């Protein structure tokens, strides 16, 4: 088992990474000093429950905790204010209180939704993330961002709220759709580009093993991804500055995701396209070499992720980019590489340059 | 003008107290480094808006900020999930973003509601409290508790979220109902009993001036109340321990409020009754003297607050007390005085003792 610490003073916690960790769920709870008799509300989605609900059930039956599993429909639609109402009611029914525990058991949708409930039920209930998609394991379960969507924007309602533990079982990835695996890999590439050239090279050298979900390589990849995210979050928990670099590839990515309709692109697919745009912008601004542009494109290709934009219009993408909630005072900030392994925040990118770059990606 | 600091590391802020501060609202915003052009969403209720809306409007017209005033119906009913939905929509419509500002302008209902919106819109927007009831000025606007109600319980959905500034204008108290003034005074008495015997004596010595809203005495009373709350909150922001002492009188108080139906008793009236119960419990447990019991009863009487319980049944009150959300692991904790000026948390108070005490208060 690998351990990664997230260092946030009194809100610090550990990420446990390993194959088969779910089997020891009871022990992990005891290690956290969760007392016998504690009420545990597990929030999961239909698909994850069909696959792993009985295992969770069995593991918790073996313990002295009182638990209840709530299953919501799978997909982004469950990240809604309406669903929070349903979950608050369920929590009340179950008699959840501040000394209880909430477990998010699923992908990023469940993590964000259950995390928001944990953040706001009785002003905060302890909670644990058990991420079951690669994207959730390397990204959304770490760092304390929780949210639901609003018609006007994704993640518009939310809170910063840290879990007590993140428990990553590599084995659950075996049932994941290929597209969801790839989606997670986009975020992994992101960590290499923004923070760690050596890691980027490791991904390139091991891309076959990674795609085949080789457990040893995967453990290393997830661990390093979590480390990088944890390091950035520790320095800027509330996204006042540095944390913005985690949005590398996301400015264009979010615009594409929103325009195509959520669900059309997986999040990571849109991010991959956005990373291509960002690297190209950096190239136009003389920040990176042609070789660096090509290295990133090659890795994105090797992971089977898209690089071009289908069916969207250029002016739509540009105007959507300017509505991003990270836009401060009307100015779009781009996270652009200085080299592979380092990014900076660049403001005032000219419309012409952006247009030229995006035009090349349009199909 | 009096200043009280709330010391919470990077979340620290100031409380400004004085007569006529509203007239300088623009300057207060500039002092906070709010930039020209910033969008400001003011949330208030019907009554406060009728009384002070035009003044706020005028003060903000004089500035370079872009603002919008949203008026919700007055009363506890507005502290609902449904109302949060309305306010999120208004915020989106207005184009509020993370660099904007929310101002809560009203009593505790508005502070709690607007604070919750500020805590959860885009994972947190800066906000300012301008409390206009005495209760809000001495209690709810300070300390970062925000919340809305759920059918199953008051303040069941909420967050800890600190304002950037609390601006207390004493003059607005002149339009407050007598009952609302008294309600705030119950919390003031509470601070004396839990923390500061000298302050308790000052209240006793000046009870006439206080009831007449003498500005000099009032400034002192509000300042000391805020100081005490700030001190307790600074030591225990998230209510893991010490902060519970602010619930002196509230265990029974909340039960009575809920049973009678919110609105029947003002919050402070219920708390006054609860403080009588708590002091009496402390007396039965040999923690305080007969003189101390009488001193508190006298002050509560002098402020015109109730001491007895009407129209409720004993068994109802006791069972409701046990449902309080502060109950951990089924055990009711009481905050009881050791003397006037000091309290401790006492668990395992016997049912018989509680019954005996409450029976004496029932009418
Ligand atoms: N909080 C953050 O920091 C953060 C960061 C990135 C993304 N996100 C959010 O994460 C969400 C996307 O996450 P996601 O991609 O995990 O989506 P998801 O949770 O919808 O999971 C994708 C699909 O995989 C299924 N699934 C989950 N685990 C499985 C398993 N082990 N085997 C088989 N199927 C499984 C789910 O049922 C779902 O159908 C978005 O809402 C995004 O906003 C949040
Ligand atoms: N967050 C906390 O720490 C905390 C602490 C204590 C109480 N509270 C909450 O505070 C709420 C009660 O606060 P409240 O008593 O201020 O109630 P409130 O906000 O409903 O105000 C009481 C009434 O006074 C009116 N009013 C407000 N200012 C006025 C003024 N200057 N002149 C004339 N009328 C005015 C309001 O319109 C309302 O009708 C409850 O919801 C309670 O849960 C929160
Ligand atoms: Zn992402
Ligand atoms: Zn109170």
Automatic annotation (TrEMBL), chains A, B:
Cofactor: binding details: Binds 1 divalent metal cation per subunit. Can use either Co(2+) or Zn(2+).
Domain of life (superkingdom): Bacteria
Catalyzed reactions per annotation: 7-phospho-2-dehydro-3-deoxy-D-arabino-heptonate = 3-dehydroquinate + phosphate
Transmembrane segment boundaries: none
GO terms (BP aspect): amino acid biosynthetic process; aromatic amino acid family biosynthetic process; chorismate biosynthetic process
GO molecular function ontology, one term from the record: nucleotide binding
EC number(s) from the headed UniProt entry: 4.2.3.4
Binding locations of NAD(+): 74-79, 108-112, 132-133, 145, 154
Annotated metabolic or biological route of this protein: Metabolic intermediate biosynthesis; chorismate biosynthesis; chorismate from D-erythrose 4-phosphate and phosphoenolpyruvate: step 2/7
Domain 3-dehydroquinate synthase C-terminal: 184-327
Chief location: cytoplasm
PANTHER family: 3-DEHYDROQUINATE SYNTHASE (PTHR43622), 3-DEHYDROQUINATE SYNTHASE, CHLOROPLASTIC (PTHR43622:SF7)
NCBIfam families documented for this protein: aroB
Record protein name field: 3-dehydroquinate synthase
Source organism per UniProt: Selenihalanaerobacter shriftii
Lineage of origin: Bacteria, Bacillati, Bacillota, Clostridia, Halanaerobiales
């Amino acid at each position: 088992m690998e351990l990664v610490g997230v260092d946030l003073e009194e809100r610090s916690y550990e990420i446990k990474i390993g194959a088969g960790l779910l089997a020891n769920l009871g022990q992990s709870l005891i290690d956290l000093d969760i007392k016998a008799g504690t009420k545990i509300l597990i929030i999961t989605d239909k698909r994850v429950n069909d696959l792993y609900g009985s295992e969770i059930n069995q593991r918790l039956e073996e313990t002295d905790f009182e638990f209840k599993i709530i299953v919501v429909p799978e997909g982004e639609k469950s990240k809604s204010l309406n669903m929070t109402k349903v979950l608050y009611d369920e929590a009340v029914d179950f008699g959840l209180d501040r000394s209880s525990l909430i477990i998010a058991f699923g992908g990023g949708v469940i993590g964000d939704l259950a995390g928001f409930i944990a953040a706001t039920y009785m002003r905060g209930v302890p909670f644990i993330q058990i991420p079951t998609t690669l994207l959730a394991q390397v990204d959304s379960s770490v760092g304390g961002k929780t949210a639901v969507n609003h018609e006007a924007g994704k993640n518009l309602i939310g809170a910063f709220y840290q879990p007590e533990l993140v428990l990553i079982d590599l084995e659950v990835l075996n049932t994941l759709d290929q597209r969801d695996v790839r989606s997670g890999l986009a975020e992994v590439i992101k960590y290499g580009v923004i923070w760690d050239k050596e890691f980027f090279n490791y991904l390139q050298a091991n891309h076959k093993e990674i795609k085949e979900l080789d457990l040893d390589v995967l453990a290393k990849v997830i661990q390093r991804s979590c480390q990088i995210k944890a390091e950035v979050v520790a320095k800027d928990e509330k996204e006042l500055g540095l944390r913005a670099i985690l949005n590398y590839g996301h400015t264009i990515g979010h615009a594409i995701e929103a325009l195509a309709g959520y669900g059309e692109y997986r999040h990571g697919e849109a991010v991959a396209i956005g990373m291509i745009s960002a690297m190209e912008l950096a190239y136009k601004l003389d920040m990176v070499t042609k070789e660096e542009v090509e290295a990133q494109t090659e890795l994105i290709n090797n992971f089977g992720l898209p690089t071009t934009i289908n069916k969207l219009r250029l002016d739509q993408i540009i105007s959507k980019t300017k509505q991003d909630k990270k836009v401060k005072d009307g100015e779009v900030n781009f996270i652009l590489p200085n080299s592979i392994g380092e990014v900076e925040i660049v403001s005032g990118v000219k419309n012409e340059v952006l247009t030229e770059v995006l035009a090349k990606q349009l199909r």
